[in-house]
Amino acid sequence: MTMHTVPAAAVRSAEARVAGYDWQALAEEMSFYGCAVMEKLLTSEECREIAGRYPDESHFRSHVHMARHGFGKGEYRYFRYPLPELIGGLRTALYPRLAAVANDWNERMGIAQRYPDEHAAFLKQCHEQGQTRPTPLLLQYGPGDFNCLHQDLYGDLAFPLQVAILLSEPDKDFTGGEFVLTEQRPRMQSRAEVVPLRQGDAVAFAVHNRPVQGSKGSYRVNLRHGVSRIRSGLRHTVGIIFHDAK
After folding, report:
1. In the sheet that 60-65 helps form, which strands lie side by side, from edge to edge?
2. Is residue 174 part of a domain?
3. Residue 245 lies in a domain
4. What is the number of structural domains in the chain?
5. Which of 109, 119, 203, 240 suits 81 as a labelling partner, its CA being 20 to 30 A distant?
6. pTM of the prediction?
7. Is there a domain that residue 246 lies in?
8. Structural domain of 13
9. Could you tell me which Pfam families the record lists for this protein (predicted)?
């Protein structure tokens, strides 16, 4: 087993969890709105366990203070390999479902890139291009913190969908801090989507582009995501990004 390999039992458990959702409905929602919510992907106990890892640097490869880079205010840490089994299992189990959406989108947008059926095969492609660093991350926001609108691309090979899981309970652990998605449409004003999440809910969303059906076929719209200002308390989120970074 390499450091990138997720234990089989963790993958089976995650696959059973992921299979409980209506993926046809989720795919349609992603295609129409650029995002879709998977309610209660994690339990409250699992959320607390993951968030509780934040102070322990041994779990992470790097620590980023967002204000230093103009990303907003707040901080996050990238997990190191091997990933925590729960996160690694979900990354492996979610990928095939999202790869089907990504391949459909690329076909509609006239993009030649196609994604393999299994996450291990996609990671192999990343590593062959020198993208070997894990990208799943744990974010922490306090009062006044926010995340500017952005896209998580990290290299030449970037998977076009990602998943964020809210680990804290709104109105109990924190206030404010809504997940926001914006869509820039050609020759039109931008559209904003505010996504309500509860503790343990996950949102799958487009990282960069998605296709929209027009009168002359599909065209691309450009998306960015962020988090609005935290009014009070502490907000933790785990982000599952499927490509590795240079």
Report:
1. 35-38, 202-206, 161-166, 235-240, 137-141, 75-79, 60-65
2. yes
3. no
4. 1
5. 203
6. 0.94
7. no
8. 8-240
9. Oxygenase-NA (PF09859)
